[in-house]
Amino acid sequence: MDRRSFIKNGGLIATAVPLGMAGSSKAVQRETAKRTPSESLVWLDTQPNAELNRGAVWGMPWAQGELDTEHALMLINESGKPAPMQTWPMAYWPDGSVKWTGHAVCKAADLGPHFSIRRGSALSSMKELSNTDPSKTEPSKTELSIHSSADQLVVNTGSIQASIPKQGNFIIGEVQREGQTIAKNAIFVGSVQTEPNGTDSANSIKFKSDISAVEIEQSGPLRAVIKVTGEHQREDQSQWLPFTARLIFFAHSDEIQINQTFVYDGNEQEEFITGLGLQFVVLQRDPLYNRHVRFVGGNNGLWAESPKGITGLRRDPGADVRRAQIEGRTTPPLEQWNPRVKDGLHWIPTWNDYTLTQLSANGFVIRKRTKEGHAWIDADQGHRAAGTAYLGGSSGGVLFGMRDFWQLHPVQIDIRGAGQPESEATLWFWSPEAQPMDLRFYHDGLGQDTYEQQLDALNITYEDYEPGFGSPVGVARTTEITLKITGATPSRSHVTQWAQQISQPPQAACQPEYYLNAGVFGGLWSLPDRSTAKKAAIEDRLDFQVDYYHGQVDQRHWYGFWNYGDIMHTLDIDRHVWRYDVGGYAWDNSELSPDLWLWYSFLRTGSGKTFRLAEAMVRHTRDVDIYHLGDFKGLGTRHNVQHWGCSAKQLRISTAAYRRFHYYLTADDRTGDVLTEATQADSALSTVDPIRKLPNTEAMPGTDRIQVGTDWSAVAANWLTAWERTGDPKYRQWLTQAMQAIGQHPQGFHAGTFGYDINQHRLLPAPDSGPKVSHLSAVFGLVEINAELIQLIDIPEYKAAWLEYCRLYNASAEEQQASLGEVFNNHLRAPHSRLTAYAAAQKDSKALAKRAWQEFNAQQEFAGLWQGEPWLVQQLSGPDVLNPTTEVPWLSTNDAAQWGLAAIQNLALVGDYLD
User: Fold this and answer.
1) 789-823 burial, b if ≥16 CB within 10 A, otherwise e?
2) Is the pLDDT of residue 774 over 50?
3) Half-sphere exposure of 162 (CA within 13 A, CB side)
4) Do residues 810 and 761 both lie within one domain?
5) How confident is the model at residue 131 (pLDDT cuts 50, 70, 90)?
6) CA torsion angle 783 786 790 795 (round to 10)
7) 333 and 277 housed in the same domain
8) By the 8 A CB rule, do 901 and 593 touch?
9) Distances (CA, A) of 841 to 343, 513, 838
10) Domain count, the chain
């Protein structure tokens, strides 16, 4: 079964239940399979708070042949005791054994800082778990359950019950705690106008979510996922902005996680979004002075007030009364109050409405008013709000927050009617007080009407422009929201602790040794090694690069709704800024694989800082840099001033190679969706020819073409990921045929371009017209994906063709002439040293190993002065720059990514020859 069928048929497990059948191969001798060392798992950077009772999800790899789908797994906490766990298979090895498993726990803090997962038989594992006769073990009475009726689903976590309508506008009907409705009518809302400047209420059209389908993706027992799909419905009943929202529940938990992705499908010339958010109603039962509003700022700061404040009055209600309101507890009975305050409560204004706006990464403002028609009063302001708030009273309410709140500005939190029986909260992921969302292309084309003009302009600004290709139609964005349904106003410290966990959820990870020994991702890395001066120097620069880009994100303010997660391409050393406004030198959009560099860096180090940088990049590129519908569906966009601006729409950007790390390490559902989309991305080759602007006189079989560099690496990554996720043999068949076609061609990888049959997913060899080489062929994941293909599928001619390409790319002119009959320019020599290293390792060639290190050091811009010389790192301040910043003038993102990958892979493959 594929993963989706497995989940639907109840294959999820808790603690020690077998994984179930998923293509298991009995031909493999499990007893002799290589066992991956049992190592503990850790929390990367954020420890789960023991007082907050949050769930967690992660992925874990297994060596080939180690884990059968019939095996059971046990979660062991730091004290050595079994803990409840839900598990599902995420990917399979070619022999049918499990390659990746997904895991969920509902009480992450109970595991401790270190914990482990062990394999065993179902019976023995059950015995270890209960220490009693398994047949007498009673199931937990608080396990999660889902009841389905004709019009709704009802999820019961044991702590809360949530109804989810199957049609209509509300994604959540109501939420109860202990039999009492706390919140209801959760709905996505927004507004759009036809003018790009200001917010014109007379010209504004409101819209709200409209549900088309509700699906149970996981049903427990510890984690449930409900997938809600639909579109937004305008006041004139027209539909736009399709969305997917996942509602995630954990057993024993009173929180609901809502992960919403919308896709832009409007007319950017006429439709300007002026607000986009999630709105819900909180039922109020407490007296006004026992109701509370909280906003979390930065550094655990908290703004906390009541709609009916009783502190700071001319008359004192009593110390116990004041203290109770400040702490969020029920105040003493009115009879115990100072009578002069009790009898004068009606003279104290009721503050109904509150707003927190964060329109940039560097400032938020809190305002409040008594009611509509009266002035807003400035309450306070700060730097970066956490995006977490509370609305309710001492008998219950909702604590809610958004991940990456200030990073994804402009954002806003509105509370309306806090003094009414029903209060309304809106978490805006596009603030209605911001300028309208303007997605139009940033220039008028500058007269670039022909391909010749566009190529000429490319030589000036590095921007590949073409009319109509700078369209945002099809780009997406995901927002992660948490609703915590409380039975009382949380303490001040609990509110700020929850804000920390929402802003940066705890992430479990294996030890670096475990990932390496599992043999996943081609094994093209080793653990950090500082045993010699030269190795230590390389390790220092690898660390330095991550630290530098991590710092640049904040110093250069690489934030914003459409921008956060991406990094810039190249510096302008004269202006001392990254070239944010210069054509193709601005946003990087995965150019030359910074994603791969960061993920391999994480795998070898286990660094939380590196993981968060890579994770933010994936969460951006998977949504914003890829088209999810429309004319360019399946393609990504090359680097540009705007993420969708470049006319180079290519598979090299949308490739699964950059996102599969995140999916397997985190079991993130949205990333899984994007990997599924990529499975058929090759069909876009008939929509947009990536080399349409270049002279092309070669006749190709079929109607379409595919390059065996950037196109093939993307298609291979997409099919490989689909094959290992589902076990469907058709994907292996597609891969095998393509690998044979390349391997059997006289030029192999030097053939350059093949014809392509999109319907049959077949490469069609073209007549041999001599070798063709592009310096970009191998720098968009081809090296890394080929390592996996050769590991998994035995096609000798394909392996031979790839090793020949690896050997010859950086070879001498004499060697190239002798083998290929001509000499070509080996641009990006240092990055391609890892191809030489791979050939050296496969052929066990000392000569190639030594040559790889010579190539690695050949280009000064890539060597980057790492060899014991001082690095030029400038600390800049005014008046040279607007804000104090660090500048490394010799380092571009291309250099960082490709040098990093070459360094990591050379150390792994031929590290013994460095000295």
Assistant:
1) bbebbebeebbebbbbbbbbbbbeeeebeeebeee
2) yes
3) 31
4) yes
5) very low
6) -130
7) no
8) yes
9) 86, 21, 5
10) 4
Could you please report the per-residue DSSP string of 433-472?
TSPP---S-SS--TT--SHHHHHHHHHHH-----TT-S--
> 728-765 burial, b if ≥16 CB within 10 A, otherwise e?
eeebbebbbebbebbbebebbbbbbbbbbebeebbbbb
- Among 142-146, 309-313, 325-329, 673-677, which is the least confidently predicted range? 142-146
DSSP string, 658-704: GTHHHHHHH--HHHHHHHHHHTTGGGGGGT--TTTTS------SSSE
pLDDT at 885 over 80: yes
* Burial (0-12, 13-18, 19+ Cβ within 10 Å), 312: exposed
The counts of H helices and E strands in the chain are 22, 38
Say whether both 111 and 204 belong to one domain. no
C-alpha 588/C-alpha 575 separation (Å) is: 19
User: What is the rounded CA–CA span in Å between residue 267 and residue 865?
Assistant: 49
**Do 540 and 570 fall within a single domain?**
yes
Residues 52 and 174 in one domain: no
DSSP at 350? P
Query: Nearest 10 degrees: CA dihedral of 750, 752, 753, 754?
Result: 10
Cβ(736)–Cβ(743) under 8 Å?
no
- Answer whether residue 33 is part of any domain: yes
CB of 779 within 8 A of CB of 898? yes
Is residue 641 one of the residues assigned to a domain? yes
Q: What is the largest CA-CA distance in the chain?
A: 102
At 83 the three-state DSSP class reads strand
One-letter amino acid for residue 853 of the chain: W
What pLDDT does residue 729 have?
98
In a domain, 693, yes or no: yes
pTM: 0.94
Structural domain that includes position 165: 145-282
CB 347 within 8 A of CB 414: no
What's the number of CA atoms in the CB half-sphere (13 Å) around residue 880?
13
pLDDT > 90? residue 218? yes
Read off the amino acid at residue 693.
K
Work out the percent of the chain whose per-residue pLDDT is above 90.
87
Task: State phi, psi for 262 to the nearest 5 degrees.
Answer: -115, 155
- The answer to the question of residue 441 being in a domain is no
Q: What is the pLDDT of residues 228-239, one digit of tens each?
A: 999 999 999 999
C-alpha distance from residue 570 to each of 372, 563, 897 (Å):
49, 16, 12
Retrieve residue 812's tokens.
């001498």
What CATH number should be reported for the domain holding residue 865?
1.50.10.10
Please name the residue that has the structure tokens 């000295």: 915
Claim to verify: residue 706 and residue 583 sit in the same structural domain: yes
Instruction: Examine the domain organization and report whether 343 and 231 are in the same domain.
Output: no
Q: What is the tens place of the pLDDT at every residue in 165-189?
A: 999 999 999 999 999 999 999 999 9
- Which single residue is written with the structure tokens 């459409």? 562
> Residue 114 burial (CB < 10 Å; 0-12/13-18/19+)?
middle
Question: What is the per-residue pLDDT across 465-474, written as a single tens digit (0 to 9) for each?
Answer: 999 999 999 9
Single out the residue in 81, 111, 136 at which a domain terminates.
Answer: 136
Which of the residue ranges 392-401, 602-611, 866-875 would you say has the lowest mean pLDDT?
A: 866-875
Q: Are residues 125 and 191 in the same domain?
A: no
